[in-house]
């Protein structure tokens, strides 16, 4: 078995055990996640809901390996990212985790296909396979004829589609979405939700979506609420 965190894939489950996270405040630590555990199989989608301040973004940041918990552990694709040092962790994140965030984070000076290919630049290789994959994904999200456009020349819904294509480029085992339809009108939101779910199901990735939208939450396989630092099935 390879020790390369970018290629090892022993299991495609997401296993989260006893995550704790607190932030220091003047009146003492604010305990946001308290022994949070969850387990999702490949191809499953889950909506995480909860009131503002309940810790949804904190959970997503930790699962996305962008922040560390105080304690606890989790496995993505059979690997424990918390055990990795910064460089292998960045490679692991790039290969295994796709992010779809409300504000897209598209690079304004790169055109649509270049934005989709950004993860390959980070991986240091833009090969023909990924180029083909990028074209396929842009086709799937209905933007085949907008490849050369800059993000500023696209609507909000179109930019979100680019972000979805980019998130799926490396065929990640985990997709994390934070209010992916937050800024969109109802019809566009429905189209984007369908696209995201269709592509996620086809790829077999796990999708964790944080949202305040009941409609979006209901579209996922299951719904969980963050209550007092833990996830409760709805
Ligand atoms: N870096 C930080 N330092 C201190 N407190 C923080 C920090 N980040 C988040 N918090 C606090 O942790 C709690 C959880 O925040 P988080 O952003 O995870 O909530 P959320 O459920 O995503 O909220 P929303 O729905 O409003 O986005 C909040 O009380 C927030 O103020």
Automatic annotation (TrEMBL):
Its EC number(s): 3.6.3.-
Keywords per UniProt: ATP-binding, Hydrolase, Lipoprotein, Nucleotide-binding, Transport
A GO MF term: ATP binding
InterPro entries reported for this sequence: AAA+_ATPase (IPR003593), ABC_transporter-like_ATP-bd (IPR003439), ABC_transpr_LolD-like (IPR015854), MacB-like_ATP-bd (IPR017911), P-loop_NTPase (IPR027417)
Enzyme class: hydrolase
UniProt domain ABC transporter: residue ranges: 14-234
SUPFAM superfamilies in the record: P-loop containing nucleoside triphosphate hydrolases
PROSITE patterns linked: ABC_TRANSPORTER_2
GO cellular component terms, A-Z: membrane protein complex; plasma membrane
Protein family: Belongs to the ABC transporter superfamily. Macrolide exporter (TC 3.A.1.122) family.
Designated name of the protein: Lipoprotein-releasing system ATP-binding protein LolD
Organism ancestry: Bacteria, Pseudomonadati, Planctomycetota, Planctomycetia, Planctomycetales
């Amino acid at each position: 078995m390879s020790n390369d965190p970018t290629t090892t894939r022993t299991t495609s489950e997401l296993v989260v055990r006893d995550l704790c996270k607190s932030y220091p405040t003047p009146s003492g630590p604010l305990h946001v996640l308290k022994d949070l555990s969850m387990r999702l199989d490949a191809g499953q989608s889950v909506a995480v809901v909860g009131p503002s301040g309940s810790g949804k973004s904190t959970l997503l940041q930790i699962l996305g390996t962008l922040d560390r918990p105080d304690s606890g552990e989790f496995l993505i694709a059979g690997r424990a990212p918390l055990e990795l040092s910064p460089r292998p962790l960045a490679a692991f994140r790039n290969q295994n985790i796709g992010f779809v965030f409300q504000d897209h984070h598209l690079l304004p000076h790169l055109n649509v296909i270049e934005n989709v290919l950004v993860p390959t630049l980070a991986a240091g290789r833009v090969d023909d396979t990924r180029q083909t994959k990028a074209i396929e994904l842009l086709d799937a999200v209905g933007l085949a004829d907008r490849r050369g456009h800059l993000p500023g020349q696209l609507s909000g819904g179109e930019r979100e589609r680019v972000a979805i294509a980019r998130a799926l480029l490396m065929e990640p085992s985990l997709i994390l979405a934070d209010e992916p339809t937050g800024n969109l009108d109802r019809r566009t939101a429905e189209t984007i939700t369908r696209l995201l779910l269709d592509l996620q199901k086809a790829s077999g990735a796990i999708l964790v979506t944080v949202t305040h939208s009941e409609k979006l939450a209901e579209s996922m396989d299951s719904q969980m609420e963050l209550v007092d630092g833990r996830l409760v099935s709805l």
